């Protein structure tokens, strides 16, 4: 059994072929898609976060709105770039969204990915400490964030406050118990997955790994997951971790499906280069449901994960993306034992 949700990048463009031609379209349709997939029986609505782009950026107003419109699904991010974040303000924002949703927030965070501008975090007022770099700054922001959402007091109270204070040091409010167990690190390599386990964060792994060992993507990702679980066990944490992977899966059950994705049947892994060196990109799964079942049954990383996030082409609109989710839930998931 697996939790199955969607992951949206929230693109918008004024192109006549796009169903999301403005930021308003992208945001409001994100809410409507979350409501639709909850009604279909899916388990989660997740959103990518990008800055300086015609894509979803500040996630917490959106997550809070979805939390108020839904009652069951998990709502989350995949991922928030921690280089841009004020960790204390983020703790307040996440506490608010989690309280509104009744404890359904699942926050994917990371050190970030290639971005639209050079060192965009500097425009947000964040500078790496002397002798440090942007990756270390992201991890330091993460450390502070994880510490303050635990709910312990750390701020010295004003002796003459406007309103009476409880005794002792003050904490970030609102505090949402259990949120610290629902933080995920978006790991692009085996090493960063091990680091995430040591910190006590769940693992979120996408369709891109920033390394390549020559084996198929799903096998490299399965090794990443196993290393994460080994490191988690060695760290002695008191709970079982969660692992999510994302995939592009398009069952072809209508002529429209075939028109959109028929050319992607037979897709293969791709190897390319990012700033960090060689990278391996996972394939797209597109085809008739019976063929998809055979191909997905051989995906070792999906088998190892408890949560599957389906990347959706949000510019095709709410109705079509709800159709895609329903096709996976109805024609593929039961045959693979995911439902």
UniProtKB/TrEMBL annotation:
InterPro entries: Bact_Lucif_Oxidored, Luciferase-like_dom, Luciferase-like_sf. Coiled coil: none annotated. CDD domains: Flavin_utilizing_monoxygenases. This is LLM class flavin-dependent oxidoreductase. The lineage of its organism: Bacteria, Bacillati, Actinomycetota, Actinomycetes, Micrococcales. GO terms for cellular component: cytosol. It holds the Pfam family Bac_luciferase. GO terms for molecular function: oxidoreductase activity, acting on paired donors, with incorporation or reduction of molecular oxygen. PANTHER family: BLL6902 PROTEIN, LUCIFERASE-LIKE MONOOXYGENASE. Residues 9-255 form the Luciferase-like domain.
């Amino acid at each position: 059994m697996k939790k199955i949700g969607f992951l949206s990048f929230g693109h918008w463009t004024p192109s006549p072929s796009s169903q999301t031609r403005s930021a308003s379209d992208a945001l409001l349709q994100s809410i409507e898609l979350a409501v639709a997939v909850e009604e279909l029986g899916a388990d989660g609505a997740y959103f990518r976060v990008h800055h300086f782009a015609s894509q979803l950026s500040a996630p917490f107003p959106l997550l809070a709105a979805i939390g108020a419109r839904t009652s069951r699904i998990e709502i989350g991010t995949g991922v928030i770039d921690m280089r841009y974040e004020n960790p204390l303000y983020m703790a307040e924002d996440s506490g608010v969204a989690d309280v509104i949703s009744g404890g359904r927030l699942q926050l994917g965070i990371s050190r970030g990915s290639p971005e639209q501008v050079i060192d965009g975090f500097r425009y947000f007022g964040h500078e790496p400490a002397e002798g440090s770099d942007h990756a270390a700054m992201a991890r330091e922001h993460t450390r502070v964030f994880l510490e303050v959402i635990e709910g312990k007091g750390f701020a010295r109270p004003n002796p003459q406050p406007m309103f009476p204070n409880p005794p002792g040091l003050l904490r970030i409010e609102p505090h949402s118990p259990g949120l610290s167990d629902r933080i995920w690190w978006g790991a692009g390599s085996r090493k960063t997955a091990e680091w995430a386990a040591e910190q006590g964060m769940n693992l979120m792994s996408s369709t891109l790994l920033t390394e390549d060992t020559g084996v198929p993507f799903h096998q490299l990702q399965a090794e990443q997951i196993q290393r994460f679980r080994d490191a988690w066990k060695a760290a002695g944490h008191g709970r079982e971790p969660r692992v999510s992977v994302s995939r592009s899966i398009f069952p072809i059950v209508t002529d429209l499906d075939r028109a959109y994705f028929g050319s992607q049947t037979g897709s293969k892994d791709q190897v390319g280069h990012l700033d960090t060196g060689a990278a391996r990109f996972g394939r797209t799964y597109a085809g008739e449901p019976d063929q998809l079942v055979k191909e997905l049954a051989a995906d070792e990383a999906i088998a190892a994960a408890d949560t599957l996030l389906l990347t959706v082409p949000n510019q095709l609109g709410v109705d079509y993306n709800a159709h895609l989710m329903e096709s996976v839930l109805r024609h593929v998931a039961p045959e693979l034992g995911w439902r």
